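Okay, any thoughts on this one?
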Amino acid sequence: MNINYDAIVIGAGHAGIEACSALSRLNLKTLLLAVNLDTIGAMPCNPAIGGPGKSQLVKEVDALDGVMADASDHTYIQYRMLNSSRGQAVQSLRAQSDKALYSQWMRKYVESLPNVTLRQGVMKKIILAQNKVSGIELAFGETITTRAIVLCAGTFLDGLIWIGHETQPASRQGEFAVNGLSDYLKSLGLTMHRLKTGTPPRIDGRTIDFTNLPKVCGDPKIEFFSNLDNRPVLDQLPCYQTRTTAKTHEIILNNLDKSPMYAGLIDASGPRYCPSIEDKIVRFKDKDSHHLFLEPEGRSTYEIYLQGCSTSLPIDVQQEIIHSLPGLENSVMMRPAYAVEYDYLPAIQFKHTLESKDIEGFFAAGQILGTSGYEEASAQGIVAGINAGLYVLNKNPFILTRSSSYIGTLIDDLVTKEINEPYRIMTSRSEYRLLLRQDNADTRLTPIGRSFGLVSDRRWQLFVNKQEAFTLELKRLKDIKIQPVPYINEVLAKYCENISHPISLYELLKRPKIEYEVIEAISPQSDNVYPFAKEIAVEIKYSGYIERQKRQVEQVEKLEFHKLPVAINYHEILNLSKEARERLSLIRPETIGQASRISGVSPADISVLIVQLESTRKLAVKK
């Protein structure tokens, strides 16, 4: 007997969880199919959330009522604001998480979702009817009907783990790979390539001498990821630093031939922005040492994650490397490092909705689309889940632009550019990063999420309360004028500032040296303003730059409204350059704006496209 669901999510990692959560919020009957229900929300690599660019994604997912931020806030062991001495556009929150608790929290959350059924199993085939998804077939022949599929397969498709020259089929350590599905997807006309990622060794913390290692503590005043209230205040655990030594470098250089990457055994691209320790030593020969971090995996384990030491060298070489590090001379390795290569679907085959351009109702998200990182997966998962739900409901799609969010930037990069290495979000990838700060994610996206029926009443009320307080505080800052009296100038002198005439608090806050703490000392505000005082300060200090960037957005987004016909034949537009015809035919952009961001398509080619569209429009009017 066939079982029917509105949508099926394949995979219960960070992408799959967000997709499932979004579908549940759209009141759709959903099946979450996982290879192993015991590893829902697993953190196979670094048990941490956030960092540059990534924290913006987490905040944006939260603004859409996603779950990653909430899970992080309930399971952290340390919170730190990175780049705190730099501008607001690049400041990024990072949480070190309790690996086991994070997964347990996510499992409990998914099980609590209404309309969601969990099932352990493996998809063998997609059942199609007139090139539309109509169901799936499981490994043992069972069929399940559905209208939409969200594939969040991570590193499972034909995964291979490498340690030295030894290899075995696996998606990650301790979990089997899914073989055969890649060949089936290729038979549907989809293109698949290989990528590689890796993870470092884990160390028994009881065998590490922390005495002389620099300690890295959490921030004394914690900022949380989620805008929900009642965040738990937990005791924070310290991390530690160590460094590679001349001996470390010697060991690695003498054993490069034992690395599967350097021996040519792995035919896949690795992450350029998160390189293995071998790559660091080879590529940065001018550096005699590299920072490594010792990060606890949780509160109830002695296991330590050796951040920055990803490798696929043999186990005996890994042990030599570890023992060459200060503080780890007598340490015991609990789990060896390894590399994993796997199949992925280049995302240029997908729309901005993350639906396949060729198979209706087939969506994908996460590492299967060529990204690395939990945060990137989560961001894609929520978009794919929302759009799969809207597809089932026959509603207009949910698309975020580059100017609206880092999520929009991430997805536009994936579906527009040919990615040949695991993609990682960074603040430098966004041309609008001053507008897309982590502190204003809710202001940008929560109203959009509410309009699509995604944002709960509780979250919406918190958002409304914040906006009302925000408006009142701006008015207060503009209305209150301070006088050049001795008391005021004594306070300002501490910041090398003074005033010679009456000035509003708003104008005072525009000064580079004046932070919100100064305003608070002169004229305290109500307690409910403090949590987002930083956002108010940024909006005031950078108001001129922000307005300029908004005008740039308005000019650029005019191109985004120029839709390109799906059936357009670029090879017939002779005035296009040969390279442009090839690139446009391959990627099939949805708008003129997207076409303008394709490598090999020049401004002259864009002008030709605009003229062609206008000619086509005029011909249609005459008919």
Observations:
- The longest helix spans residues 457-479.
- The first strand starts at residue 3 and ends at 4.
- Residues 561-622 form a domain with the DNA polymerase; domain 1 fold (CATH 1.10.150.570).
- The chain has a mean pLDDT of 92.
